[in-house]
Amino acid sequence: MSWLQQLFSAIISIPAKLLITTKVIPGDVQQELGIDPKKPIIYLLKTESVTDQIALKNAAKQLGLPDPDGALEVGLHYIPRCLFLERPQSLFSAKAEASDIAHTFKLLFKQHHQNEQLDLQIIPVSTFWGRAPGKTDASWRALLANKASPNWLRKIFIVLFLGRDNLVYISKAVSSRYMAAEHGSDEQIAHKLIRVARTHFQRRRQAVTGPRQMAREQIIQGVLASAAVQEAIAEEQHGKKISADKAKQRAQQYANEIAGDYREGLIRIAEKMLTKLWNKVYNGLEIRHAEKVRQLAQSGHEIIYVPCHRSHMDYLLLTYVIYHEGLMIPHIAAGINLNFWPAGPIFRRAGAFFIRRSFAGNKLYTAVFREYLEQLFNRGYSVKYYPEGGRSRTGRLLPPKTGMLAMTVQSMFKGLKRPISLVPVYIGYEHVMEVASYLKELRGKDKKKESFWQIFSAIRKLKNYGTGYLNFGDPINLGQFMDKCQPDWRHEVQQNPDKKPSWLTPMVNKLATDVMQRINQATAVNGMNLTSLCLLAADKHALTEAELQRCLTDYLALLQHAPYSQLVTLPEQPASSLLQQTLKLNKFTVQQDSFGRIISLSAPAAIAMTYYRNNILHLFVIPGLIAAMVIANNGMQKTQIVERIALLFPLLKKELFIYLSQSQAQQLCNDTVESMLSVGLLVEDNDKVIAAQRDSQAFFSLMMLNRCIQETLQRYAIVLTLAAKGDKFSRSELEKQSIRLAERLATLHGVTAPEFYDKNVIGALLNAMREMKLLHTDDEGMLAHTEQSRWLLNEISGWLVADVAQNIKHS
Asked: Which domains does the chain have, with CATH numbers?
């Protein structure tokens, strides 16, 4: 950098410090990117810009990387720490001039031949101001568009208006030694590196800002002009016996009802407001595994986010996190129930497009919606939709709705240019604001229609909600998934483009299940759901502080030593700190006596806490079953434990969306037994494992694990017992009797979980038993027990608490 440039930079940096606020992605370049701050570093930027260098200087300081100012001594030469692919546009020209970087790279590679130890980290750095993708229409706002190489006048306006929304994106370093070893002359290698860098910067911009934004009306006209929609309009005209204009008008109304109207400016305003909201409501947000998604975006994948749905907060939280992780804001499928004034127009401008709860039989609406979705995919926009269809009222994952997934799969039939990846997302909270209303709905109260005043009232009351958790799961490459399920699908679709393939529905069902399993695979364990698990298993939902802390300690140790999945995240603090932090949320009753503190749940709180327990119940299925079997049988051989769990596992896998295969479950079972032995919950006794001594604290933790699984086993026993008492049942009759018996059992034994006798849960269990052949279906659709179900009932009955088993058997 010349003395004149240094002087200019020093002058500009004074106001820039006030105007520029820099966010850096990723926050830990050493762990995520493998960058070593102790090794020589050269920063590579696309455009020479003083303000971009100031932003990079801020970023380097935050990350503990070398200052980008100055130069590196390489042999007898000094190479600037900042290199640029091109110079900015001139004031009167739209063309950016190339820099002298090719000469610098050629000189650098020449030095590598003279010094075999020389190896520099060349780090591509992208800077974004406002992250506006730009629009296809021209307007005064184009002055602020974050163009690739803006001239100095445009850059002044960009920094003035967008300086506080500056993003510096650090990419994985390229080894100069690796490049120097490439075949070809130094000049050829230099030009190759420049070409690769240009492609990288272009992809990075696409991944962060998305494609150029088309006007809403343009997208709607594209939808209406498509062949599929035109055919549906003609069918509507003849089928409903209406005029052509009336049919077209109806399609136009559907398109207007559906289409989003994304405005980047609203996103920036909302980001500021949401930051204040999160700081007011939550103690923090914990985000994990975002690097997986960034890698997909950089590789040019079309990303579809498929999160679980706990709360209306999900809409805000996931979009906020995606924005802060330096990723393209997705277009969001929102229920039509949210399209009310003034929220509807705001959501629409934030990228929401609206979908009806059901449009079965409405072929015109289906065609318009499907074409709109395909337009988003074809234009390279990321998309977000909720596979459950609605919010979970019980804290469990709901059986997925397959409509949106089916449309996504069918979009592959038209030969999309970019690969599609589904990204499952686990969302969890230490407090869900709608839990009270969920419980009322489960008791039969009608769901309240969303309104402005309802949302305003909820936001006004928001406070002390603990921590929010968002974990990205393992992505599903849709093309690879389809190739595995149906290797010749491309050929079959080309041969019969108008025919729905027979394999489509089974494939979509398998895909939906895979998505839900991967959501649960990335569960976030926190103080609220773990404490709820313990207290709900306790007599009268009360434990001493020492008992509760010991249970938390033992269960965290189990999850650490025998992890359900490498994507599951656990609290980093010890159990004592975790408990104190959780108690500050004021959801539990704390009483002090002369012996110490007692932590308990009131009757209403116990019902509410089942929601949080259910978030993590699948993590404790195998430990709970092991505890139940060992206690009931006064010890068992390890092989017997694994065999028994293997027989019950398929039912648990289906009900709780467990991602493990049968062999993986057996391995986890073995690992869990070893972990329980190391923690002291189990003890080896010759060729058996037995429970810890009954007067020990370890046995108390083991007993509590047993109780965690009891409600699940009781529900299985109820259905199997009723099925065994009669020759045949209709599905509806068996469901009704199971619900009645579950309600009776809940009254007798104080079961607080609303889902224990929930119609949807019992119905899903019946479907699972039919699929597993535990219930036989005859030609008339009647259900009957089987020998396998009778054997399983005998096994389960032996694991139940004695008085509960008797009540079920003699009811």
From this structure: 3-209 (no CATH), 216-276+296-423+436-466 (3.40.1130), 708-809 (1.10.10.10)
